């Protein structure tokens, strides 16, 4: 995995546009894993570039070639450009790693049964994994402890536009009596795989009804207790 930091400067005059882009390509905070690239553009055409991996300027137009030769002979200017790799790239990359890239968010899993679109199997399970970061994740199925390698389809990691991601894995199967089916998630935020077992004993709609009913019962008991305490307090007064 690699990332980029961009620094852009623009100059305009009489309808012409000059721009310079400094780009830091990196996959760690170590200097050896960072490449600094300075690109110079005239009216969107790149005419000159410095790359720290080449440690020199390269021209792409007649003017760019002349400037590259001039800059490469200027040892003090080359030293200044080399130093930018540490001053700008490594410094800002460290900030990114400490505040963003090293952070992670644990996923939560929802396992449900849906009607299959048709085919050789009569049942389908969907394992939906939400709100995880970073992007890379592994989702797979276990059936009686063995990984399922067929009749499984998954979406790509889908960005939620808030730094978090979601992914959905589908398993088509024919139920067997007494079997155990699990959705397993492996992610950088987890110390060990997150295993969610499927309970086929009750449809999801019925489980939701029971959950709502239980919540209503608990709320009713709380209100009744509050009313009883209020009544006793008023009676004593």
Automatic annotation (TrEMBL):
- Annotated Ig-like domain residues: 107-196
User: Can you tell me where the transmembrane regions are?
Assistant: 210-231
- Any Gene Ontology CC annotation: MHC class II protein complex
Topology with respect to the bilayer: Single-pass type I membrane protein
* Gene3D superfamilies per UniProt: Class II Histocompatibility Antigen, M Beta Chain, Chain B, domain 1, Immunoglobulins
Which terms does the UniProt entry file under GO BP?
Answer: antigen processing and presentation; immune response
A single Pfam family it belongs to is: C1-set
**Residues making up the signal peptide according to the UniProt record:** 1-15
> Is Transmembrane among the key words of this record?
yes
Protein's cellular compartments: Membrane
Which keywords belong to this entry? Disulfide bond, Glycoprotein, Membrane, Signal, Transmembrane, Transmembrane helix
Annotated PANTHER family: HLA CLASS II HISTOCOMPATIBILITY ANTIGEN, DRB1 BETA CHAIN, MHC CLASS II-RELATED
In its UniProt entry, what is this protein called? MHC class II antigen beta chain
């Amino acid at each position: 995995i690699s990332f980029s930091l961009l620094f852009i400067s623009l100059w305009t005059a009489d309808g012409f546009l000059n721009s310079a882009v400094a780009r830091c390509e990196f996959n760690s905070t170590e200097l050896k894993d960072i490449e600094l690239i300075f690109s110079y553009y005239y009216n969107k055409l790149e005419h000159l570039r410095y790359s720290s991996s080449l440690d020199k300027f390269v021209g792409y137009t007649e003017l760019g070639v002349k400037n590259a030769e001039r800059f490469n002979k200027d040892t003090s200017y080359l030293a200044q450009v080399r130093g930018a790799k540490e001053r700008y790239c490594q410094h800002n990359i460290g900030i990114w790693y400490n505040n963003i890239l090293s952070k992670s968010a644990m996923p939560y899993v929802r396992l449900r049964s849906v009607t299959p679109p048709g085919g050789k199997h009569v049942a389908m399970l969907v394992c939906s994994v939400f709100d995880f970061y970073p992007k890379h994740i592994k989702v797979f199925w276990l059936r009686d402890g063995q990984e399922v390698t067929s009749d499984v389809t998954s979406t790509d990691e889908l960005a939620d536009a808030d730094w978090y991601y979601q992914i959905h894995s589908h398993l088509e199967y024919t139920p067997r009596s007494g079997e155990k089916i699990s959705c397993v998630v492996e992610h950088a935020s987890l110390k060990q795989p997150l295993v969610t077992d499927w309970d086929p004993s009750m449809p999801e709609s019925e489980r939701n009804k029971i959950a709502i009913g239980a919540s209503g019962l608990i709320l009713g008991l709380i209100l009744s207790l509050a009313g009883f305490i209020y009544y006793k307090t008023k009676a004593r007064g």
